[in-house]
Amino acid sequence: MSFTGKYELQSQENFEPFMKALGLPDDQIQKGKDIKSISEIVQDGNKFKITVTTGSKVMHNEFTIGEECEIETLTGEKIKAIVQLEGNNRLVANMKGLKSVTELNGDTITHTMTMGDLTYKRISKRI
Q1: Fewest CB atoms less than 10 Å from the CB: which of 16, 23, 69, 83?
Q2: What Gene Ontology molecular-function terms does this entry list (predicted)?
Q3: Rounded to whole angstroms, how far apart are CA atoms 54 and 43?
């Protein structure tokens, strides 16, 4: 199953408490909470390029399944991580106390991030 495509954010749960826990300033949280971000994923075998555009903020990440890479976080920090593919539709990464799971089902991507007992969930649809 290929992840390649453009996806628009449809809904999100726990955005504000999760972003506060990450240390994002309140003004950025307020600006970002109502913006429908667009995620563009290009998959070439085990190589992925992901671009997330939220208003004027653009985040680029590239990785190869199973290889250490540098991931830019929502706070702009760059951290080392290894992304694994579970089955043919789940990308899983563990980085600095944060677990990220991106699951593709048909034209819907569910991205769940967990930090301690706090979970942030985003649902995006292919456009």
Answers
A1: 23
A2: fatty acid binding
A3: 21
Decide: residue 14, CB within 10 A, 0-12 exposed, 13-18 middle, 19+ buried.
middle
Instruction: Tell me the residue range of the domain where 92 lies.
Output: 5-126
CB 81, CB 69: distance < 8 Å: yes
pLDDT tens-digit profile of 48-82? 999 999 888 899 999 999 999 999 887 788 999 99
d(CA 47, CA 29): 31
CATH of the domain at 85: 2.40.128.20
> How many structural domains is the chain composed of?
1
CA distances from 124 to 65, 79, 85, 87, 117 (A): 22, 24, 19, 20, 23
pTM of the model: 0.90
Q: What is the pLDDT of residues 92-122, one digit of tens each?
A: 999 888 999 999 999 999 999 999 999 999 9
Pull the structure tokens for residue 10: 């449809």
